[in-house]
Amino acid sequence: MTTLDSTQLKRDLKQLIVQACNRDVAPETIADDAALIGSDSALGLDSLDVLQVNMAIQRHYGARIEDGKHARRVMKTINSLAEFIQSGR
Amino acid sequence: MCVGGYGLVSCYGTGAQAVVEPLRARRPGSAPLTGLQLPLPEALPVNRMDPQRYPAGMAGTQAAMLAAAHEALTMAGLDRTHALTDCALVLGGTGSLAIAEAEIRRVWERTGVATALPVTSAGAMARQLATTLGLDGPVFCLATACASSANALLVARDLIRRGQARRALVIGAERLSAITLSGFQSLLLLDPAGCRPFDAARRGLQLGEGVGALWLEPVPAGHADSGRRHRFHGGANLCDTHHMTSASPDGGAMARVMQAALTQAGVAAEEIVAIKAHGTGSADNDLAEAAAMKTVFGARVPPFTGLKRGLGHTLAACGAVETVAFLACLDAGFIPPTAGFEAFDPALGVQPLVPAQDAPAGIYLYNFFGFGGNYGTLVIGHG
Amino acid sequence: MAEPSVVYIHASAALGPNRDYLPAQRVRLSADPAPSDLRELTRRVLGQSLRQASHFVELAAIGARLCLERAGQAPPPATAVYLGTGLAEVRAGEALFKQVLPPGPGLASPFDFINATNNMAAFYVARLAGLVSRNLTLTLEQFSFEAALYLAWQDLRHGAVPAALVGGVDENSFPRANHLRFLSLRDDQVMGEGSAWLYLNGDPDGAIGEVLCVETLKTDGLGGTAWAQALRQFVGAQFTPTAPVSLLPGYGLAPEETEALTRALPGVMLAPYLDYCGCYPTAAAFGVAMQFDVPPAAPQLWLHVNRDRRGQTRLIGVRRPAGC
């Protein structure tokens, strides 16, 4: 994937997360390397949000994670999530 | 108050007796799921009732409820000629019953098959069943997730003690549905290898369906316990407000409901012979339950057993299904062992019962913990 | 067993289909109310948004909080919660059907699935108020609120719980034709929704009312006049009214049944309330609760009467005694 694709993907992912989790946050304000999970993170996602995002990325990108710990690792930041999707796994 | 009779339809067949030998031998009653086009793990083990006798849909569900009810009534010495006036019916059943029904209806509608299926609800099914059985006392339906049937037993007991019903039939019913399966998959709570209660490698639930029935009545005057009589000492229900789907990690709320149940029943912790654990096989639930048992019983946690590898997690029904299965094993002389358990988990510090052990007379504890922090613990005697 | 004692109403709240929860906000509905968005009201009343919760959960949570606020005292943590609901989650349930059944992708939304757990609304109510005691969700078609109130009333009378928060909550869904799959309504009945609550305990101090009875009458098969006579007999035996009596007709009553009842009960005043909340299985809660969220007035006794298609009747008796 080209850099441009990657930028677009990250923009889409921010939109997707905000929407899936009903977060009152402008997607573009989320930094690519900001922590997403935990009460002191940029988005404050919890374990249930991780599952909600997991369902959304499975639906949009066909990427399937079947382990909660793995899902939390993948969704650490926008960067790690984009990487996971681009790696096609 | 006592359990005067019980009945069961489970993955092992019709009748409470059908579970005894498989549970003694730790034989899983599951089969790989087929027929649903869902993104689920392959060959997911699930526990179903006989699809020929109890097909998906309302008619099959009612047939299972009636089979379990008649078995319980027969054991209590009531044949179909006995009038059941002023007897209550309390159902532990949630929207999943209606969902399972509606799935079929919608599939039929899509395929153009004419349907005259009424839209139903668990409450409607409870009232219908009471009418069919001639139970003309109060009717209630408890929809409190996996504690539904345990709460139904507690409510039924109150109705009798307060003179609002002479006797009560408690039914717990659960049907598998595509939505339930898909929902638990989305929560990453299904273990593709099946339920492994309190095992170091446990990964989640194994879903099942079933119907259990218990007939509650005051202890008959001058009645010498026949071995079939199980005294219902009491119990408690409370809410763990920690999280929608996960328990207080230290097991604090689970310990409180067990303690409240013992207090309500007037029974000391030392008197408990063994525990029918909830034991879902999920990482968090079993951890919290183990911690709770250690809190309540200290260094002397009684033998405890999880039944969900054998029977599946029958959700709203498990309070009735597992109680009946456990009672049937006690009546056969043994405490059922824990199928699915192989490896000790040092994080839990305790391990469930393997293999079966003789069942002495005494008092047993039954745990049921549901989503929405809804917890119910029952205290029931044996012999 | 403790001697059965009087059960007092200390506060009530009735949240209606147009986000109305004060007497002055209530309007008569002439058609189905539009879908209401409760996110803003949730923030305002609860001081936080319930991001992962559904409309049904918000409905329950707002109503319960309003009721507790009006009680003027924090409820003891041992306060029990009894939530009656005829349909429980409708909207999340519908969403799950679309997601999971063909031609949907087969993936259930975790939020929808969790919200569709029948007792999730009662969980939120308990969590937001710190109530760690008995927590029951009951469903019994259009007698779901009566079932919840009956258990709460009995638990209080027998000293099983120190206080109770009792609600009736149901949501509507759209379009109407689809909602009618769950609820049979006549063409002239609007489909409402609501979340109405009573806070009850055994303390007469500061009470605004009393629960007198929650009764089931086996009136199956009785026609309008015979049915009304049966109720008259029951009411005559049960009450010696010292205050004016108002009749709150539930949505299961046919117009001719209401008429027969007003004829059979001399001096009774008709107090229709469905115009304000619309028809839904637990509308009875709204009818009862809205009598107690107005400034105290003269003593009065209300009888809520409902009947279902099986012919069974359920009656709730509440009153505002003198001095309340």
Give a description of the structure.
The complex is a heterotrimer of chains A (89), B (383) and C (324). With 89 residues, chain A is mostly helical. Helix content of chain A is 55%, strand content 0%. The longest helix of chain A is centred in the N-terminal third of the chain and has 18 residues, at 3-20. Chain B starts with a strand and ends with a strand. Chain B is an alpha/beta fold and 383 residues long. Chain B has a single domain (2-382), classed as Peroxisomal Thiolase, Chain A, domain 1 (3-Layer(aba) Sandwich). Chain C has 2 domains: 7-201, Peroxisomal Thiolase, Chain A, domain 1, CATH 3.40.47.10; 209-320, 3-Layer(aba) Sandwich (Peroxisomal Thiolase, Chain A, domain 1). In chain C, 32% of the residues lie in helices and 20% in strands. Chain C contains 11 helices and 10 strands. The two termini of chain C are 29 Å apart. The chains are: A mainly alpha (89), B alpha/beta (383), C alpha/beta (324). The interface between A and B is small, with 12 and 8 residues.
Short description:
The complex is a heterotrimer of chains A (89), B (383) and C (324). Chain A is built from four helices and no strands.
* Strands of chain A, count: 0
Alpha carbon gap, first and last residue of chain A: 14 Å
In the CATH hierarchy, what is the superfamily of chain A?
A: ACP-like
Distance between the termini of chain B: 14 Å
Mean pLDDT of chain A: 91
Q: Give the overall shape of chain B, derived from the CA principal axes.
A: globular
Stretches with pLDDT under 50, minimum 5 residues of chain B: none
What's the CATH C level of chain A? Mainly Alpha
The fraction of residues assigned to DSSP E strands of chain A is: under 5%
- Approximately how much helix is present in the residues of chain B? 25-40%
| CATH topology label of chain A | Non-ribosomal Peptide Synthetase Peptidyl Carrier Protein, Chain A
Number of helices of chain A: 4
Task: Give the total of domains of chain B.
Answer: 1
Catalogue the unreliable spans of chain A.
Answer: none
**H/E order of the elements of chain B?**
EEHEEHEHHEHEHEEHEHEHHEEEE
Structural class assignment of chain B = alpha/beta
Mean pLDDT of chain B: 93
CATH class identity of chain B? Alpha Beta
